[in-house]
Each structure stands twice: as structure tokens, then as C-alpha cells.
Amino acid sequence: MRSILIIINDAPYGTEKAYNALRLANQLGKDHPESEVRIFLLADGVNCAIAGQSTPNGYYNIERMLALSLQKGAKVKICGSCADARGLKNVPLVKGTELSTMAELTQWVVESEKVLTF
User: Fold this and answer.
1) pLDDT averaged over the chain?
2) Domain tally for the chain?
């Protein structure tokens, strides 16, 4: 099985890096369901996992895109120290995401055939 790790460092809105990363993750889930897609949210990317995002009609919604990735079988981890640094300790997160560590990211990097950074 092919393992692909996508690291998202950027905030959910303001640039389209998180948007494009999740577009890719969801396309991989659709076209290559045999692949294992892993998403690690790092730095300002941890904000992608905040539950209850509200966006204007016609504008992409990172929470929904992340939920779709999870539905397609992706694993989503959130850097715990990055989340703490941004005050997300008691904020509801997207169901299915998990707080994680740099040690786990390191393990995912070693296990992955491809690592993409956004």
C-alpha cells in the first residue's frame, strides 16, 4: 500500500495552501482509495481542525473539506504543542482528528513513500 503524508503549515484561510492540500488529499482518496493518506496539521495549519467554521456561500470551507478527507479514510493528526501555542486546548476540533506529537510526525515521515508540504 502506498502511504502519502501531507503536511499543512498554513492557516485555513488567507492563502489557498490548506485548500489545495485538502483538494489533493480528497482527489487521492477518490482516485486511489488503496493509498493511505495521512494529513498532519502543523503551525498555523492546526486552525484547520477547529470545528464550527462558517464561511460565506460560494466560498470553500476547510472544516467540510477536512471531514471529507476523514470520510475517505485519511488520518488527520494535529501538532499538540502548536495547538497549545495558539490557545486551542479547550476548543472543539473536527470529529476524527487527533492531537499528536512531533515524535509521531517523525514516524509518519519515515513510514511514508511521499511527503508533501503546503
Assistant:
1) 96
2) 1
Spell out a b/e string for 88-108, using b for 16 or more CB atoms within 10 Å of the CB, else e. beeeebbeebebbeeeebeeb
Phi, psi of 73 (to 5 degrees): 100, 0
Contact residues for 65 (Cβ-Cβ < 8 A; gap 6+):
19, 22, 23, 26
Q: Minimal CA–CA distance to 28: which of 59, 6, 53?
A: 6
The CA-based angle 63-24-42, given to 5 degrees, is 55
Confidence band (pLDDT; 50, 70, 90) for 58? confident
Are 5 and 116 spatial neighbours (Cβ–Cβ below 8 Å)?
yes
Summarised one tens digit per residue, pLDDT across range 2-57 is 999 999 999 999 999 999 999 999 999 999 999 999 999 999 999 999 999 999 98
Output the domain CATH number for residue 9.
3.40.1260.10
